[in-house]
Sequence to fold (344 residues):
Amino acid sequence: MSKTDLKSLNQEELQELVCALGEKPYRGRQIYTWLHQRLVTSFDEMTDLSRKLRERLADIGMITALEPVTVQVSKEDGTRKYLFALADGNMVESVLMRYHHGNSVCISSQVGCRMGCRFCASTLDGLVRNLTPAEMLDQVYRISADTGERISHVVVMGTGEPMDNYQNLVKFLRMISGEQGLHISQRNLTVSTCGIVPGIRQLAQEGLSVTLALSLHAAEQKQREGLMPAARAYALTEVLKACAFYFSCTGRRVTYEYALVAGVNDSEEDAAALYALLGGQNCHLNLIPVNPVSERDYVQPKEAVIRNFKNKLEKCGINVTIRREMGRDIDGACGQLRKRYAER
Ligand code: SAH
Fold:
């Protein structure tokens, strides 16, 4: 029988497990703290447990611990890109970004992705599997342990579609924000989705106050479908209604992400259509000059075009930012690190 991954268990589940071993419930809390606050990776480090209990735990359970395969450090801004190996040999990438407001880790939610966005490297080889809660948590834990720094923000914006791994995503969000864990404020957690409507609506009703980021990339249905095949499943109006519902349930302002691609979605008409779609909404628009992916021929608009696009929307009263490129000197776009490594 396969061993239980103790790091994927929440506090109640861990308590049940130790009680089934004939231990007192507080042992569950102790183990939880070792795993999620002190970030240990072995039972032997849990020094306030008896040797006998540690051995029994090792018999029935295991502790997920990701192995860093490569770490690239940007000389420009201190960004660190990690390629981690999972226990089954699969790889995921995670990024630490240092901002003035704190350290932010971008994590992957799946190995690969099946959404097929035309400009994204993560989806080129399809979906391999979902990540467990422990594998999502440990991306943050290993980076925190490696740098010795506190992580204040987590964005689920790496490889994968989080709504396609919904149960594990929600468990991850609860555990990373829980008091007995790293206790990262839910307001500092962001989930980015390509627009899976049922997932957005369900997340709105979890009683969480995490930020939703919607990958929009086009203001018109057909144009959006051309960039994001997964958009065929949901009318843009339905996606926006789901976002409005998310805002009304959580009070959290939605972030719309718009990757600017030269000659594809960066015209004056595109800006006008975007305004028509978002105008009057209490939201945040994040413009991302597309990261060129070698397998695709998308390129960034010229600097002046980007600025003009931003100004146009700003003048209409929309809250717009241009995403600052981090770690430009260490690697290309999302999902390329893992792919290049696999090719070598
Ligand atoms: N599947 C989720 C989260 C992962 S992608 C989603 O679609 O939101 C995270 C963000 O990076 C998305 O907004 C995605 O569209 C964007 N992205 C992917 N490849 C990109 C590229 N080459 N350049 C710019 N943004 C990209």
Q: What stands out?
A: The domain at 4-62 is CATH 1.10.150.530 (DNA polymerase; domain 1). The mean pLDDT is 95. The pocket of S-adenosyl-L-homocysteine is lined by residues 115, 117, 119-120, 157, 161, 192-194, 215, 257, 259, 288, 290-291, 293, 333-334 (CB under 6 Å). The chain has two domains: 4-62, 67-343.
